Amino acid sequence: TLVAKITMENYSRQNLRWTTPAISTRYSISDCSGSGLFCKRLTITNSTVNETGQYQCFYIGLKAEDGKTSAAVYVFVQDYKVPFVPSEKEYEVVFIREGERVVIPCRGSVENLNVTLNIKYPVKEFHPDGKDSVWDARTGFTVPTHLISYAGVVSCQTRIGNETFKSPLYIVAVVGYKIHDLTLTPNNVRLSVGEQLMLRCTAFTELNVGIEFNWTPPHTIPHKKKLWNSLELSNTLIVDNVTVAHGGEFICSASSGQMEKSASAFLTVYEKPFIDMEEPWTKVWEVNVGEPSTYIPVKYSAYPEPIIKWFKNDLPLNDYRIKQKSDALVIREVKETDAGIYTVILTNKITKEEQRRSFQLLVNVPPCIIEKEMAADTDVYLYGSSTTLSCTARGFPIPTHIQWEWMSKEDCPEAFMQVNSSECTNWRDVSNRTGHNHVQPIRTDTDQAQKKITSSLKIQKAEAHALYRCTAANKVGKDSRVIFFHVTRGLEVTMSPSNRPLEEDHVILRCKADSLIYGNLTWFRVTNVSKSEQGTLAQPCRSLTLQPTPLSHAVLTPQPVTNVTLELSLRNASHQDEGLYACQVVNIITGEKTCLLHNLEAPRILNNFTDQKVRVSSTVTLHCMAAGTPNPTVAWTKNNHTVVESSGVTLNQQNRSLTIQRVTKEDSGLYTCTVCNSLGCDTAQASLSTEGQTSSSLIYMLHLCLSLKFATASLFQPNGVDLKTGYLSMILDSEDMPMDEQCERLTYDASKWEFPRDRLKLGEPLGRGAFGQVVEAAAFGIEKATTCTTVAVKMLKEGATASEYRALMSELKILIHIGHHLNVVNLLGACTKPGGPLMVIVEYCKHGNLSSYLKSKRGEYSPYKDVTEGDLDSHYYDDHLTMEDLISYSFQVAKGMEFLSSRKCIHRDLAARNILLSENNVVKICDFGLARDVYKDPDYVRKGDARLPLKWMAPETIFDRVYTTQSDVWSFGVLLWEIFSLGASPYPGVCIDESFCRRLKEGTRMRPPEYATTEIYQTMLDCWLDRPTDRPTFTELVEHLGNLLQASAHVMLLPPSACCFSHFVNARALSCDFIDTSSLYRLSQQNERCSRPLSVKTFEDIPVAQLLRCKSKESLGSESSNQTSGYQSGYHSDDTDTPIYANEEIIMKHKMLKKPPLPKTPDKFNTEIRYSTPPV
Fold first, then answer.
1. Binding residues
2. What is the pTM of this model?
3. Which positions are annotated as active-site residues?
4. Known binding-site positions for ATP
């Protein structure tokens, strides 16, 4: 009901004031005081709904208390057309707190209305229940917070007659109080007098939190920053022109009413800039080579923070391995070359004051006997001759001496048969001369500059076979070399008549050899040999091209003592008989075939030597042309000192020409050329003098360059012996041609593969081995002219020998020969030109090796993609492994190996660690190694202390050292096990010893990995068949895995433990639901692979407790044996798991734990899984 006029009066003895509703405007206040009383009259005219509300009169200056200092009246201006009091704003915000009741201020102009509360987003309606939900015309609708905390907008609604009326809209906002964190930055401030202090206090809160900041000293106005689900409020304290008195602790506190946090910072004020550097507790730091890192600390106090620079031997540091930190120098992967004097210089940025300290770093290096990498361990010496055995050891500290020991052939005859001394233990000091060759006192020379010691043992007269061992040691390690000393009574080829025979003469070629060492003497005609080989007396027969059949008209004649002679008679010799003849002998001990050629000739120098006088800075070349059979070696000396190649000094044409560029006065002297072969030596001399002047600076620079070059060359001086093969990985499979000759015949097309070094920027190392290293690099324009491509660069380490250089060059040629394939790490280019290191550039794979990648994804594996859940999150599956991914990896490796085998390549080390993962889930086979010839040294697997991957090797490789494509298939089966175990180590819990090798040969195999399906495990078993010819080819594996890959996109694959594997105890063939047999690869179609037993012996590695918990993984225990044999493996497992059982008999004691057989179920796809083992 609208009221035209409302009048209210209030009387009091003190001055009064009225308060009115916020939206009321139709009122006036007048003074009605009188009779000593104060009076204020409030009059409302033409009242509307807006005047509905509370009107209060109170004393001015006193706290309003109802009935004491104030009086109030609530006025309803009833209007049934506007039952709800309007709001000041179109939208009003209602703040709510968790756990409290909230009032929606939808006041009414009419009492006793039937009001409901409507919420939106989501849409709901609440009715007053008189208890938790109440509507009051004076206050509004009261509800618990939790009913509307999720709502966006609320409003009240009532119905009068047939009309519905709604109150204004109210936006619901949750008010929080939690302070998640409070930070004060920086927390440790150092300033000098006069600078500005700025501290920033930041509170991270939940939404709609009011924060009050307090400082000691006072605060400033906060700054707000809205975050995604929280609020960042900050408060900054600024003090200009700080003084020493400002120093101390500053505290910032933040309060939300219900929560308070505080943070502190400390200010230090200095009167002036300074540097104070502490003296180190030691100035000599000692570290062992190869350590992961070494730490040289620097302690100082300074303001401002100084500029820190490190120097090594007065030169700035630029090695990526050395990190210069503010408080230390950190050297990672310590090298021998890191030794030196390190100096740190601290410079004040303001005053430019400097302070410096120097430290000496000593790098301890275990001894390394150089001859092990440069000379053969087996040598043959002529009976009665005098020879010197040498051992040169490098290391730091330099070994003080080298110990010589010996052993007779009778003490360890098996060592001479296998060229392996690991089983020989009866070593004696050379001072004990009983029964062995007479030796002179040992001579020892120490070279401090080169950090090496050389020990020479001179044998006065070679009379008996023996083993000699030299051992060098220092405080960080030791090294030994064993020399197999074979004594022969003769190995030569002669011709009668000795002069050049005439036509129709009777010519006899005699081949004499020591029958104790050599046998199977045979004469051949040589059809193809290079000129450089014609002068060699004895060389491996594989380096010659012999006629397919030997000459049959040769007569074998025994000789006195132990010699044997094979005579080849050429009666009525004619021009058709001219040519090169070779006598092939076979070393009884090593099986190596050696060919001896006739036409021996003493060496002689063909050209005349004349003295020369040249100008300084010019170029001069001295020639020494030699002839002789065997082909003589050429050596140069200057003033009786050996001439070696260095900057500006080069030897060409097998040392037959000596070129000196930029001649200096120091190059003057007497130059001698010496040529030698087995028949003697010849020498020639010439004097070289200079004229003209040279500056002292030029002399100094040339001297420095030559010294550095000489130092490097002398450390790793190569010789002409054969390359070592112990570190080689992949070989070319050819029985027709040796590897050395293959590599020599392979060509390198520089116009196609050469890449400029200046367009290659080397980066971080990716890996390193004993001789080489691989680094990440950026190649500019290697694929397209304007692009930068990330590549991997394979290069040799510092001090690499000439043999290692040739090995890397051979690998480059092999990569070119192999060609391009998607699943092989492909060659992109090479840097071979003089002026820098040899570098082979290959593809870069960003995800690293497959083994590490699978391990990192163990928590992100799901068998298949569930595409029934609405929108598929592609990013989720990009980061997760599925069964399809594992089969895809296996398929791609099989494709790559199919390609390599088609190129006649045997990998020899196929494992997950040698598979790289590139972009788009593409896998690539890598680790071809510095590929060289394994035929040259059939015993390379037994040399030194090399470790072979026994877990991945086929039985024929372990026992017979046979590497074939079929042995690669065996390794592929182990690789499958790694993939479907997500990178686990094969044969978990199994001790890798002779028992393991024996059981492997007897047919014991690994259990299926956790994520393998029955078909995948069957594929592994087929790869592990005992007979190599029974194993599938890579082409068959590609077809099979391709079918599985196609099927895996539609069907979830079940693990073998789900239905099949638990019933091997009963030797029953069970069936599993699997994919359509039309897509399966059936090895059983081949006759030799279909007749297999229905169970397989496996290495048991499951503890009894686990058997109790998981019956589905029970297995029939393999037969065990306590037998031992004389065979002891020199190689060890890299598996760190500890075996649970000493043998598998314990497993058999728990048969009663096994499940009873499951009832026979219909086979949906008619699939039968078979497991195989050879008969025991």
1. 767-774, 794, 913-914, 927
2. 0.36
3. 909
4. 767-774, 794, 913
